[in-house]
């Protein structure tokens, strides 16, 4: 019982830390240019947002964490989006906020994640995008313009055809 209570307190503390660290900035709006960033993926490779756009890809950024139950529920739909739209020009980048490489990689492997998981260990990108809660989905077109922001993945009519 004591271990459960300690675990719950640690999770609540982490949740409050993320919300506090990301709450100070207003979010970006639809039509705004998406700020560029470079983060490492779970294999240690650097991924740059502008390079993804240069490859002619629309990008769905998904801000999340392994402890978030709503983020966990979203994984199957993100796997399906990747299966259905990768060949049409969509790149899914899941930005894990504040967790270790080991934790994010282990979760991704266990859940059969088929999209790129990036590590925002210092919450820098989440803050840059004005993320105040997770999951948060941001669809960026191939020109680097934000086309959608929401708690769920975008509707099909917004995705590359």
- Identify the overall geometry: globular
The residue-averaged pLDDT reads: 87
Q: How many strand elements?
A: 7
H-E string: HEEHEHEHEHEE
Strand percentage lies at: 15-25%
Low-pLDDT stretches: 4-10, 15-25
Q: N-to-C terminal Cα separation, in Å?
A: 51 Å
- By secondary-structure content and strand pairing, the structural class works out as alpha/beta
User: Taking Cα atoms only, what radius of gyration do you get, to the nearest Å?
Assistant: 15 Å
Strand order of the largest sheet: 2-1-5-4-3-6-7
Number of helices: 5
> What profile does the largest beta sheet have?
7 strands, mixed
What fraction, in percent, of the residue positions are helical? 25-40%
Description:
By secondary structure, the protein is of the alpha/beta class. Helix content is 37%, strand content 23%. The protein has helices spanning 2-22, 49-54, 69-85, 101-111, 124-128, and strands at 38-41, 46-48, 58-64, 90-97, 116-120, 136-140, 146-150. Strand 1 (38-41) and strand 2 (46-48) form a beta hairpin. The protein starts with a helix and ends in an 11-residue tail after the last strand.
Could you outline the blueprint of secondary structure elements for this entry?
Blueprint: H1 2-22, E1 38-41, E2 46-48, H2 49-54, E3 58-64, H3 69-85, E4 90-97, H4 101-111, E5 116-120, H5 124-128, E6 136-140, E7 146-150
Parallel strand pairs: 3-4, 4-5
Antiparallel strand pairs: 1-2, 1-5, 3-6, 6-7
Features:
alpha/beta; 5 helices; 7 strands; 37% helix; 161 residues; single chain; 7-stranded mixed β-sheet; 23% strand; globular
Summarize the structure.
The protein is of the alpha/beta class. The protein is built from 5 helices and 7 strands; from the N terminus they run αββαβαβαβαββ.
């Amino acid at each position: 019982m004591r271990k459960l209570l300690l675990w719950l307190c640690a999770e609540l503390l982490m949740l409050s830390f993320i919300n506090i660290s990301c709450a100070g900035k207003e979010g970006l709006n639809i039509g705004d240019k998406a700020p560029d960033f470079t983060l490492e993926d779970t294999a240690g490779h650097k991924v740059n947002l502008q390079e993804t756009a240069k490859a002619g890809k629309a990008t769905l950024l998904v801000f999340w964490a392994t402890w978030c139950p709503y983020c966990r529920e979203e994984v199957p739909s993100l796997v399906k989006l990747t299966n259905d739209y990768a060949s049409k020009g969509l790149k899914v980048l899941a930005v894990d906020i504040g967790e270790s490489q080991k934790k994010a990689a282990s979760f991704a492997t266990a859940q059969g994640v088929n999209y790129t998981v990036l590590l925002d260990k210092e919450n820098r990108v989440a803050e840059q995008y004005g993320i105040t809660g997770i999951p948060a989905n941001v669809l960026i077109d191939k020109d680097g313009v934000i086309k959608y922001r929401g708690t769920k993945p975008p509707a099909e009519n917004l995705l590359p055809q």
